[in-house]
Amino acid sequence: MKIGVIGGGAWGTALAQVAARGGEPVLLWAREADVVTSINTRRENSVFLSGVTLPDTIRATGVLGDLSGCDALLVVAPAQHVRSVLGEIDSGATPLVLCAKGIEAGTQLLVGQVAGQVHPQAPIAVLSGPTFAHEVAAGQPTAVTLACEDDALGTALAERLAGPAFRTYASNDVIGAEIGGAVKNVLAIACGVVEGAGLGQNARAALIARGFAEMTRFGLARGARAETLAGLSGLGDLVLTCSSTSSRNFSLGVGLGQGRSASEMLADRRTVAEGAFTAPVLCQAASAVGVAMPVVDAVCALLAGADVREVVGALLARPLTREA
Ligand SMILES: NC(=O)c1ccc[n+]([C@@H]2O[C@H](COP(=O)([O-])OP(=O)(O)OC[C@H]3O[C@@H](n4cnc5c(N)ncnc54)[C@H](O)[C@@H]3O)[C@@H](O)[C@H]2O)c1
Ligand SMILES: O=P(O)(O)OC[C@H](O)CO
Which residues does substrate bind (predicted)? Predict the structure, then answer.
């Protein structure tokens, strides 16, 4: 199965390395000419994943059409750009494996649903889980969910991408796998705020638990299965990103907690903090299905410039309620 990768950021590059591990050729499309040059001439993505030497079997291209001979495409562009990038490629019925984590602004669709709209003939799969790109690239042990409604294709993809230190768990809950990854990015911002504002470890643990309750309520309302949300792509990824400054979302939250403005921090950065874009859409999507997500609402308020102490005070002052 020849793999193509759409997106030359840190995660697309690390996944290209995963796919190339057995010696198979992998073609990676990158939007930036300097990324293409860096990979093809220096065997390194010095822009988004510096310090990692890539095998000769990974070739980069700036031409999306070059991916047309691939047997499966890993889609690793940021969530808000998946529609436009996929719209530029004529991949027919080639399976698309969505690896971005987010909800599209305007449509409130998960990225797999966006891909299904753009390429109705293509089988859709989702790869998601607790996966910092630099750890995967370093060959450190990692486990992910590989979800696909077509069990045979899902198993084939899971086997193709698995490696000695990269364990893939097959699932057919595509929506569940996507919702975990999208929602945890927003909750990671909240946990970063706790860190930045010095609110303590009790508060962070409470946010992880109550955030998981929000993820579960929203996921069930959108058709996810509870066991998927409690698995690698949900709770697993939530725990990872809510407890590490390696997370861009967590780090953005730390800045917010220290009183910096979101727009200032997001301006001019080349790397993506998906939670900042997902948060406002998630607020609308939750309201559309009648699900309360107070932590997510608080993140939206902070991203829009609200005062940290006031937002935290309002969260704590809500009427007492039952846990479940
Ligand atoms: N980095 C990780 O550890 C990691 C792990 C799992 C999932 N992800 C997810 O993978 C996706 C990609 O993240 P990343 O970390 O590889 O990116 P990155 O932050 O390393 O790089 C930014 C990426 O955004 C792309 N980009 C910027 N503007 C664009 C535009 N207008 N159109 C198309 N692409 C554009 C750039 O080409 C680049 O590929 C995100 O959804 C992220 O949540 C990342
Ligand atoms: O750096 P973040 O916050 O985008 O997180 C990266 C991955 O999603 C972790 O699984």
Answer: 101, 248-249
- Residue 128 CA to ligand 1 center (angstroms) comes to 14
Alpha helix locations (H) across the chain? 10-19, 33-42, 82-87, 111-118, 133-137, 151-161, 174-196, 201-221, 226-229, 237-241, 248-257, 262-266, 274-288, 294-303, 308-316
Structural domains in the chain, CATH included, are 3-172 (3.40.50.720), 175-316 (1.10.1040.10)
ipTM over cut 0.90:
yes
Tens digit of pLDDT for each residue in 191-225?
999 999 999 999 999 999 999 999 999 999 999 99
Is the C-beta atom of 48 inside 6 A of ligand 1?
yes
Q: What is the DSSP letter of 283?
A: H
Q: Which residue has the tokens 């939007």?
A: 31
Catalytic residues: 184
Mutational test site, ligand 1, from 11, 82, 126, max ligand atoms within 8 Å of CB: 11
With a cut of 90, say whether residue 268 has pLDDT above it.
no
pLDDT (average), residues 62-68: 96
Q: How far is CA 215 from CA 34, 103, 179, 245, 286, in A?
A: 38, 13, 8, 22, 10
Task: Give the closest residue (by CA) to ligand 2 atom 5.
Answer: 247
Give the tens place of pLDDT for each residue, 116-146: 999 999 999 999 999 999 999 999 999 999 9
Report the nearest-CA residue for atom 11 of ligand 1.
100
Check: CB of residue 29 under 8 Å from CB of residue 63. yes
Residues framing ligand 2 (Cβ under 6 A): 101, 130-132, 185, 188, 237, 240-241, 247-249, 274
The identity of residue 199, as a single letter, is: L
Amino acid at 9: G
